[in-house]
Automatic annotation (TrEMBL):
GO terms for cellular component: extracellular region. It comes from Cucurbita maxima. Its EC number is 1.11.1.7. The gene is LOC111469882. Residues 24-326 form the Plant heme peroxidase family profile domain. This is Peroxidase. GO terms for molecular function: heme binding; lactoperoxidase activity; metal ion binding.
Amino acid sequence: MEILKVCFILLSTASFLWLSESVTLTSDYYQKSCPEFRQIIQQTVTNKQITSPSTAAGTLRLLLHDCLPNGCDGSVLVSSTPFNKAERDADINLSLPGDAFDVVVRAKTALELACPDTVSCADILAVATRDLVTMVGGPYYNVLLGRRDGRVSEASTIPNALPLATSPMSEIIDIFTSRGFTLQEMVALSGAHTIGFSHCKEFSAQIYNYSKSPPYDSQYNPRFAQGLQKACSGFENNPTLSVFNDIMTPNKFDNSYFQILPKGLGILKSDHGLYNDWRTRPFVEAYAADENKFFSDFARAMEKLSNYEVITGNQGEIRHRCDAIN
Ligand code: HEM
């Protein structure tokens, strides 16, 4: 009897382990339950990007801000309630653009009509980001499916989980490496700054304090700094003032971001930091010289970021609306 009992415990533990390990993301997750999945997302993002060209950059940043703090579970999409201050109301997330949330909401609405209660908001965000990156010229990468939506979203979990533009490089590096990303992956991912904007308040403290003669590699190119001062004049009264992250090809996903850094044409202190720090400079130089290498490393790092600490199986839920926990 005792032996039977032990066998039963061993067997049930083994099957539990097997079950929990077998639930992973797959590429054909919605093939039967929602065959229109890919087409609906593709159509939604195409329409949105054409009417609001800043959507691609905003959505890419939204994915980072969803995934890095506590996994890709769509928790950044949840709105605050009178009882809970949600992640999206954490200070650093207040500048996430409405268009990025909107593209996810649009895709979710269309998907709920086609296949109710089936597709997670976390999967929508991951696939929409990939499609948008590709649309603006970036590399295609594979996004596995089957993420579930998280049931927790708390603003208090965000500080220290995302890099600030003014953080020392060691802190920025720590945020990525403590989550299992290599330095090379961190630099490749930062190539995301080849598109999109930064608000003046993110870098204004640095643009009055720059070296007046070459080499400019530690700070801003002086003429560029003067240009930024002009573009940002009066930003205290107009907080919407912003400038392109990559002044050369702001709307095109390419390796020009890495080429402008050595010229002192980066916008954020952290952009300059990537070139100035001996640990990250070799990767900046490699990507500046070879766009194919940047694209293949970026694609691999995005796949990894999109899968970071996902929840699957019977964890979490499929949210009815992306902005509210069921
Ligand atoms: C290395 C550390 C990083 C820091 C300190 C940083 C910081 C920032 C800041 C301050 C902005 C400006 C936000 C605004 O003013 O609205 C920004 C924009 C952006 N960031 Fe980063 N970022 C980092 C890495 C990344 C990574 C790894 C990605 C994506 C994988 C990313 C994607 C973006 C995008 C696409 C934008 C433009 C957003 C838009 O146009 O709405 N960033 N980042």
